[in-house]
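hey so u asked for the seq, here:
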Amino acid sequence: MSWYILILAGLFEIGWAIGLEYSDGLSKPVPTVGTVVALIISMVLLAQAVKDLPIGTAYAVWTGIGAVGTATLGIILFDEPASLARISFIGVIVVGIVGLHAVSGGH
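ran it, structure tokens below
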């Protein structure tokens, strides 16, 4: 169950990171509130996940999910570059996330 909670925490991390763009430097009230709420939910879920998962693994996976999701949505939503190199390095992060899950043992 902790892995599902961690994945959900990572999805909320994507939400607050993307919210930073929409909030225009936290100057727009509605996107700012959404960003702060997503940040709090993400942290609470991460805190729950690390009750059963090693902190190093959980934090790396959490940030990896956030990085991959935010970079991908940056390409889709904000017309950021989608070069082969950039997509390849995003793929390397995905491999790292899967690898950390695979070697996490009984957790």
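The mean pLDDT is 95. The two ends are 10 Å apart (CA to CA).
lmk if thats what u needed
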